[in-house]
Amino acid sequence: MASKILSQKFYAEMEKLIPRYPTRVALLLPALHQAQEETGWLPPEVLEEIGAYIGIHPAQVREVASFYTMYNLTPVGKYHVKICTNVACCLRGANELVEQVERKLNIQCGETTRDRKFTLMEEECLGACGTAPAMMLNDDYYENLDSKKLDQILESLE
Amino acid sequence: MSETLYIQHFNEQARPLSYYLEKMAGYSALKKALGMSADDIITEVKKSNLRGRGGAGFPTGMKWGFIPKQSSKPKYVVCNADESEPGTFKDRDLMRYTPHLLIEGMLIAGHAIGSSIGYIYIRGEYTREAKLLNAAIEEAYKAGYLGKNILGSGFNFDLTVHRGAGAYICGEETGLLNSLEGRRGEPRVKPPFPAQAGAFGGPTVVNNVETLTNIPFILNNGGDWFAKLGKLEKSGGTRLISISGHVKKPGVYEIAAGSMTIRQIIDQLGGGILGDKKLKAVIPGGSSAPVLTADEIDVVYDIEPLMKIGTMMGSAAMMVVSEDYCVVRLIQRITKFYEHESCGQCTPCREGCKWMEDVIHRILEGHGREQDLNLLLNIADNISGKTLCALGDAAAGPVTSFVKKFRADFEAYIRSGKNAQVHH
Ligand SMILES: Cc1cc2nc3c(=O)[nH]c(=O)nc-3n(C[C@H](O)[C@H](O)[C@H](O)COP(=O)(O)O)c2cc1C
Ligand code: FES
């Protein structure tokens, strides 16, 4: 195999997890998370490297990775904006927020801006319905949103 | 106000071990449990009338009792922290504010079923909560509450946080177990049930976060005490309720089980309807629960009373909808969710959810036909009870109840091509 893409740290984290599970395949979800943290998304080479490490076929890695919405199998922008539009957030105006971002960034949901700075997505319930509407920006939650607050957050991003 | 177990400890920060030890009698229940036999612990949990807080309300003591005493494979305690039922956000508070309660509950479960390995399966989006749990677990290891020979008792227990990655179906316990094992989170054929062959083929207890955080209180104060906290027979303890939607004060509240009606909860805890509008509908137990109309809410909010009127308490997530919100739009969004989250294994669920969504979407867009309503009821009926897991029923129940209870709204919408009184 070609030279490794994933870092020493990735392998060190995985070695720590090995004794935690009775099988090696159980490392797959943690490995995909850890890898995505390093590379932002999961290109085929990374899936292959994870497969080689765990000892499964790359197709099996992809089969599993593609089941879960959090694993990015295509590149995403530097800022991944995920606005919840499930029931509680809709009742509190989430659709209007999505439209606001679409207008502001000039993209549709599911798209990335040309400068690769923003990706916008609709998200299912984030478990923040008491502080709706809510969104995630990369790994962080932003809650009790309104139009002004959302604008300020987007403006503040480099 | 009656006694609450949790809410007074919910604050802006995770409660560290020192707080837990001082203010919450931390790990004293574990000490007590280590001096008891497994059978005695299970008897106490049975006496408590604790019923699972994940959605199905299954008696916890009975579930633990199903685990075989002897097993050639290791046994497992798995905490369901997927919290993916729309409208539910109580487990998040339990994990971020009182993580040690969960750890202690899992330790006691482990001792009771003879397991020395636990996993907390937490939804992937809760990165912050996963970090807080890991920090608490590290504290517990350092203090000797986790690891080998805990408190000199000879009991060993290791606990690992396993992050999901965005899939509602991983809240279903066998989908969860597949996901834990590094597979697609597709539900399994049952039997075998997890108690026989669960995680990695070993006997496994799967319990919700709140179910497990109740355990230390039960051990400390006794099963009878816990049972009496509840106001109805066969339903002990308190309930954490997630209230969202059109109320003035959304949030997590705690009540003695069966002590209030839905109307009282909305008015007294939720602060009434936003903008003092009239109530249109209440979804009482997460988005999978059949909807209630404004004149059905004088019902006691607990498992049995809600079942009697054809809905369910589920995860105790109450979504409140005021008069000017369009019910067609609401059920379209709910159905889109199930269509998106169906894992695709069972044809009735995969095809039926898509079909229902198509039909409701057509209505919403102004192209509905008179016969669409009966078509929806028919599709829902053909999903219900015909799938491997309960996602199919979770999708069908809302559609059936919305169409039946708000039929006039749907018919008016179809006739005019839009919702007459409502702006979108
Ligand atoms: C589609 C579906 C989603 C579910 N999601 C959750 C969930 O997010 N959290 C949870 O605790 N239980 C969930 N459940 C229920 C679990 O399958 C299981 O009954 C529960 O974890 C058992 O724990 P308990 O007995 O402590 O309630 C779900 C069930 C289904 C069918
Ligand atoms: S509906 Fe948006 S966080 Fe639950």
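Residues A 84, 86-89, 125-129, 132, 134; B 86 surround FE2/S2 (inorganic) cluster (ligand 2) (CB under 6 Å).
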